[in-house]
Structure formats: structure tokens, C-alpha cells
Amino acid sequence: MAAFAATLVCPATAQVAILQIQIVEGEGAVHAPGSRSAQALTVEVTDESGKPVAGAAVSFHLPQDGPGGTLASGLRTDVEITDAAGRVSLRGLRVNRISGRFAIRIVASKEQARAGVISSQYVAEPGSGAAASAGKRKAKWVIVAALVGGGAAAGILSAGRGTAATPPAPPTVAIAGGVTAPPVSIGPPSVTVGRP
Fold it and tell me: Are residues 125 and 84 in contact, defined by beta-carbon separation less than 8 angstroms?
């Protein structure tokens, strides 16, 4: 009886050996105390050759105390998956009212490879220019709305009055006995030539 042996050859799946992570948007953002960030914190994950890594898990970790805040979920930690371009964005960060610098720890992982980076963020002092500029942006729109509203009100009032100017009342002359009459006016002189 002959023995038959078969060897199966399976191609090895390409594993990511090294991950690189880079912050592409939102680094060093300064937030007004108690505000929700309008700017996303975006990171890009690539492999050792610089190609984007899709499907990598990226976790964002905010500090437990001191300056910081919470994420859209209300938690201090969130995990997102990179898209085909190797990018993922953290949105909806609400900072607390404790001023100062804080770090968001970002960790990317796929298979056995991992990488990490720290993003520095700041909560502005309540009376500082960053906090005031956030308030000024809001106040500017209130002023613009008031001016537009005031202009509209003035237009409505002038339209209600009509476009023709109201002629002034003719002057009167008091006559004895409390009676008033229009003043007598002399018209322009006339000259007649020839027969009347």
C-alpha cells in the first residue's frame, strides 16, 4: 500500500509590523471654559512604509482630573476605527472649566502592532483672550442680528409713512376776536401790453 502525503501551502497574511500615528488636525487647540469644541482632533495611522492603515482601532483617553473634559458619549475614553485613508477624527469634546494644559493620550493598534502619541490641548483662563474671543463671536452675531432687525424696523416705519413728504401746515394770522385767517400774500407783478 502506498502512502500519500499532501502538503498545503497557505500564503502568509501580511501583518502590519510597525504603526505610525500622526496628528493632522486639532493639535494645540485652545478651548473656552465649558465649551464644546467645534474643531475635530484628527489622526492618521500609517505602516512602516507610509501607507495608510485602514481598520486600525484608535483610542482617545482624556485625563481623569484637572483640566480636561468629556467626549460626546459623556465618557473620558472613546475608540474609533480608521477609514480607508487611515484617518479617524474625535468630535464632540466638551471641556470643563478648569483652566490649564491637558493631554489626550491616543493609542492606535492593529493585529500585534501598536503606536501612541499625545495631543496637547488647553482650557483658557476665564478672562483670557481665547475665552473672550469665543464670547465675542457669539456677541458679534447678536449685534448683527440687532442691526439687521433695527434696519428692518426702520424700513417698515418709513414704508408706513409713505414716500411723499407731508406738506407743512400753512401759517395763520391772528385777527381780533380770536379768529385766525391765512396771511395775505401779494403775488408776482403782472404787466399787460396792448388792450386789456
Answer: no
